[in-house]
């Protein structure tokens, strides 16, 4: 397998996982998954609308429009900054946080099922490669 084939295989794997666990099994669209993931990864699971817009290279008006839709669906809450009411944070609701916990459990179960089909040598080889991959990725992103 060439390097390019390995990269394509990794991309296919992650795209399939996201697609299978989030998009097909829920009412979320891919853009929703990306936005929710960004908010989830932020400290305390909340971000400003301007940070959201900046991250996704969209206008604050467009980000605010997405958040209006998400608020109507019960996915986010808006929180005004006490010292400056112009600053609005969006935070994921318990409904969404619970859904993410379910996705994690489903993913864990599916991964365990997959690894049950491999022997110890194959798992060890996979872990060595994964570790090397992580080291290379961290090295590239830290430059």
From TrEMBL:
* The keyword DNA-binding appears for this protein: yes
Q: Gene3D superfamilies of this UniProt entry?
A: Winged helix-like DNA-binding domain superfamily/Winged helix DNA-binding domain (1.10.10.10)
Instruction: List the InterPro entries.
Output: HTH_MarR-typ, Transc_reg_Sar_Rot_HTH, WH-like_DNA-bd_sf, WH_DNA-bd_sf
Q: Name one GO cellular component term.
A: cytoplasm
* Span of the signal peptide: none
Where is this chain's protein located in or outside the cell? Cytoplasm
Q: Which GO terms describe its molecular function?
A: DNA binding; DNA-binding transcription factor activity
In terms of one coarse class, where is the protein primarily found? cytoplasm
Q: Which residues form the HTH marR-type domain?
A: 1-135
Q: Which family does it belong to?
A: Belongs to the SarZ family.
**Entry keywords, A to Z:** DNA-binding, Transcription, Transcription regulation
Q: Name its species.
A: Absicoccus porci
The name this protein goes by in its record: HTH-type transcriptional regulator SarZ
State the PANTHER family in the record: TRANSCRIPTIONAL REGULATOR, MARR (PTHR42756), TRANSCRIPTIONAL REPRESSOR OF EMRAB OPERON (PTHR42756:SF1)
